[in-house]
């Protein structure tokens, strides 16, 4: 939809001088309109952190308003058992937008159980978002986090089952089982990231294509293995035998499958990745290798190996997401895993591929998912409409950041173009 | 797909509204205090088969007993646990209906934890690790292979003769039929096994192509598979693939061949394709839901039991499409009656696995 509207509209609200707002008059003067677009991009690229935050907030408000109108109008078209409001001449509306948003907010943060559901989703999205961000930082687009997660989850699910009879069902057993599950998930997910990495480095195969394809291979392979050879024979579902209780992360809040240990772990990983990429030589080399191979090679870096390393690291994080999913949420592998890997792409883009930025982005996604669960459950609003609301919020919030990245790419703004020698980083 | 579901749910909503006016007043209101939570399977409402059948059951109960209900549609099996717990934990629901076999593992745990909550499970049996039935779960399973045998028998008879009615036709040479499954699970294997056995019962030499779409809600893939089958000479394709089956009907119409629906009488639920849906393997999920609600209304809910429904109990049945009623040759209808009796009497042994 209106990409221009998102960028310009927000701009008009936050900037006083007014380079934004493509009004009808602007459209009449074609060249001027183009200039304004350029100015807007320049401004976006140069925006300070506070300004960017203000843009995001304004975008959120805007998305809520547009979504509210949409819900309200849909309410007149839909038929329901109990209309919520009646307007003379117009008829009855089935949905009350204020109530929808309130339920959403309450569903995300309103009670400890709801908060646990939000944080559960946030934790998983942190891992997948970081997986995508790590690759992005090295100039690689890993669309394969989903597949890496699916196989990581399967490997973890299978590896942990026999532990039930070996380990004591105590803290000590847990200290063995849970790290083991994480390592298995990381290795298998990492291997699934290593393949496209090696193909990219040594055969010049576009990683976007290979990772997309490997997603299908991963899902199909996992389904085949479980349905034909490794599945739980006791059920009609395509799933593995549940993991023993020693391999389950202890729930922090009663009745919810959320463990604060996993969340803290995810936050530590985010900080570690930030430090790795911004403070270490290895991180510098990883960044430069993906951005400009020849320049990296010239300065004595093995760029090919680093591309493989970046993709393996990205895959390992996807695999860990799968491992956490098995040990904290589902306690088994089952076909039809949620699309956390794909959501991770959106989380990473929203965060501007900054490992620390992934934290609030994952929380927003987690809250929206948990909130829409509550709306779907409590109000008669169809799930699809809630998905539209969610999509609108994400679209509006991500659009300014997207245009900023675009502007940066096409050399808008006053900063010099990033080059490999400064690690593609701008200060 | 999402848009389709949305539009379909609008349609359903409209029907509910009408039904409320027409039937509601005459209904028995004894179930007014009864509140039912429905958790569907991941194909979701609007599939015009499995989930919509369950929904029909609860709508009927609403009309007859005045109960109220709440729908929940999980996006993936991972969400089922959340919905089960949300319903059970809220203390506001007298009965929670879990539709589909993907529910079973979580339900076994949740039912034991919420031991005061009454549950119904369709398409699977909730058993503890020791093999005991969970006390507060009423289980409904179907002998799909029996009904599938019937439609396989019908398809086998049709493909070996010249038949021309509705939007399609068959030729007698090269008898060939097809089967499209959703995901390759044990239940769908029963459909396939019964279907093939039925076709072979009609004629040993019939070629049966089978394929799985790998999804319950991917009509595009369903259409691709079915088109290939029709191109290769299949006269009739039977699907057991939920919403994916919509693609099979599309393919049948463009190829001017026949298709067989599943779960609901799809010549009615997917009426746009009634000219090619020669029959449907109806699985009365709606009856299962309705009966379980009725038992709660009458206060004689029985947990820890298994209702095993086949041809004899009218749990499954081969229903001729609405455009084909009375149009099928008598030799076919007679043969179907005969094979039905054979299965009920145990003279015909229908395999459960391919």
Give an account of the 3D structure:
The complex is a heterodimer of chains A (427) and B (354). By secondary structure, chain A is mainly α. Chain A has two domains: 1-95 and 381-415, no CATH class; 112-379, ABC transporter involved in vitamin B12 uptake, BtuC, CATH 1.10.3470. Chain A is built from 16 helices and two strands. Chain A has a two-stranded antiparallel sheet. In chain A, helix 6 runs antiparallel to helix 13, helix 6 packs across helix 15 (358-378) and helix 15 (358-378) runs antiparallel to helix 16 (383-409). Chain B has 354 residues and is α/β, with parallel strands linked by helices. Chain B has two domains: 2-141 and 285-309, Response regulator (Rossmann fold, 3-Layer(aba) Sandwich), CATH 3.40.50.2300; 144-283 and 324-345, Rossmann fold (3-Layer(aba) Sandwich), CATH 3.40.50. Chain B contains eleven helices and 14 strands. Chain B has helices spanning 2-22, 50-65, 77-90, 104-113, 144-159, 186-202, 219-231, 245-255, 266-269, 285-297, 330-345, and strands at 35-39, 68-72, 95-99, 118-122, 137-142, 163-165, 168-170, 176-181, 207-212, 236-240, 258-263, 277-283, 305-309, 316-320. In chain B, the strands form three sheets. Chain B has a six-stranded parallel sheet with strand order 2-1-3-4-5-13, with helices on both faces. In chain B, strands 9-8-10-11-12-14 form a six-stranded mixed sheet, sandwiched between helices. Chain B has a two-stranded antiparallel sheet with strand order 6-7. Classes of the chains: A mainly alpha (427), B alpha/beta (354). Chain A binds chain B through residues 77-81, 113, 117, 220, 223, 227, 232, 234-239, 242, 255, 257, 325, 329-330, 332, 334-338, 373, 376-377, 382-385, 387, and chain B through 2-3, 5-6, 9-10, 13-14, 16-17, 20, 42, 44, 70, 72-73, 75-79, 81-83, 85-86, 89, 101-102, 104-105, 123-124, 127, 183-187, 214.
């Amino acid at each position: 939809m209106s990409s221009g509207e998102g960028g310009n509209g927000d701009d008009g609200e936050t900037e006083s001088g007014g380079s934004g707002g493509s009004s009808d008059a602007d459209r009449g003067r074609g060249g001027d309109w183009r200039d304004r677009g350029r100015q807007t991009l320049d401004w976006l690229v140069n925006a300070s952190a506070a300004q960017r935050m203000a843009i995001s907030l304004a975008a959120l408000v805007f998305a809520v308003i547009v979504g509210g109108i949409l819900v309200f109008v849909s309410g007149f078209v839909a038929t329901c058992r109990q209309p919520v409001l009646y307007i003379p001449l117009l008829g009855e509306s089935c949905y009350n937008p204020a109530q929808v948003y309130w339920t959403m907010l309450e569903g995300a943060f309103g009670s400890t159980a709801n908060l646990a559901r939000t944080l559960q989703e946030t934790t998983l999205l942190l891992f997948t978002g970081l997986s995508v961000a790590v690759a992005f930082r090295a100039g690689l687009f890993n669309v394969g986090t989903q597949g890496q997660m699916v196989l990581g989850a399967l490997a973890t699910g299978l590896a942990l089952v026999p532990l039930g009879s070996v380990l004591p069902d105590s803290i000590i057993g847990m200290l063995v089982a849970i790290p083991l599950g994480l390592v298995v998930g990381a290795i298998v997910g990492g291997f699934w990231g290593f393949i496209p990495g090696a193909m990219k480095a040594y055969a010049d195969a576009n990683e976007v294509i290979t990772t997309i394809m490997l997603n299908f291979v991963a899902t199909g392979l996992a389904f085949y293995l479980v349905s034909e050879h490794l599945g739980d024979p006791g059920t009609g579902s395509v799933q593995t035998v549940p993991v023993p209780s020693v391999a389950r992360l202890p729930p922090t809040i009663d009745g919810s499958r959320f463990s604060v240990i996993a969340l803290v772990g995810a936050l530590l990983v985010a900080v570690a990745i930030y430090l790795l990429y911004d403070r270490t030589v290895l991180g510098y080399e990883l960044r430069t290798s993906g951005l400009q191979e020849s320049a990296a090679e010239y300065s004595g870096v093995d760029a090919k190996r680093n591309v493989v390393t970046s993709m393996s690291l990205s895959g390992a994080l996807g695999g860990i997401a799968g491992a956490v999913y098995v040990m904290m949420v589902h306690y088994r592998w089952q076909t039809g895993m949620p699309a956390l890997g794909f959501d991770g792409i959106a989380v990473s883009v929203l965060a501007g591929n900054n490992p620390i930025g992934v934290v609030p982005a994952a929380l927003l996604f987690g809250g929206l998912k948990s909130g829409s669960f509550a709306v779907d459950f409590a109000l008669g609003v169809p799930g699809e409409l809630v998905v539209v609301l969610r999509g609108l919020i994400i679209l509006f919030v991500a659009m300014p950041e997207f245009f900023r990245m675009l502007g940066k790419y096409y050399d808008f703004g006053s900063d010099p173009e990033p080059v490999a020698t400064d690690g593609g980083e701008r200060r | 797909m999402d848009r389709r579901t949305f539009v379909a749910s609008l349609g359903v909503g409209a029907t509910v509204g009408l039904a409320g006016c027409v039937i509601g007043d005459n209904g028995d209101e004894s179930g007014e205090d009864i509140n039912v939570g429905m958790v569907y399977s991941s194909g979701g409402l609007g599939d015009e088969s499995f989930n919509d059948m369950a929904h029909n059951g609860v709508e009927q109960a609403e009309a007859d007993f005045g109960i109220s209900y709440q729908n929940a549609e999980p996006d993936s099996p991972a969400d089922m646990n959340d919905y089960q717990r949300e319903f059970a934990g809220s203390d506001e629901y007298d009965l929670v209906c879990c539709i589909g076999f993907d529910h079973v593992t979580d339900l076994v745990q949740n039912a034991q934890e919420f031991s005061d909550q009454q549950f119904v499970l369709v398409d699977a049996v909730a058993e503890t690790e020791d093999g005991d039935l969970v006390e507060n779960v009423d289980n409904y399973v179907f002998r799909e292979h029996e009904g599938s045998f019937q439609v396989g028998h019908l398809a086998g008879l049709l493909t070996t003769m010249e038949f021309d009615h509705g939007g399609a036709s068959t030729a007698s040479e090269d008898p060939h039929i097809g089967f499209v499954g959703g995901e390759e699970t044990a239940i769908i294997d029963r459909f396939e096994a019964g279907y093939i056995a039925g076709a072979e019962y009609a004629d040993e030499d019939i070629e049966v192509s089978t394929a799985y779409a790998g999804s319950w809600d991917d009509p595009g893939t369903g259409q691709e598979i079915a088109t290939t089958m029709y191109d290769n000479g299949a006269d009739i394709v039977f699907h057991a693939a939920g919403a994916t089956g919509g693609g099979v009907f599309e393919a049948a119409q463009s190829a001017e061949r026949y298709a067989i629906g599943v779960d609901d009488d799809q010549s009615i639920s997917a009426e746009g394709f009634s000219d090619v849906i020669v029959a449907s393997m109806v699985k009365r999920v709606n009856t299962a839901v309705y009966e379980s609600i009725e038992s709660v209304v009458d206060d004689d809910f029985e947990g820890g039991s298994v209702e095993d429904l086949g041809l004899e109990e009218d749990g499954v049945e081969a229903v001729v499409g609405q455009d084909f009623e009375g149009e099928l040759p008598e030799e076919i209808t007679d043969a179907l009656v005969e094979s039905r009796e054979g299965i009920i009497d145990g003279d015909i042994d229908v395999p459960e696995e391919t």
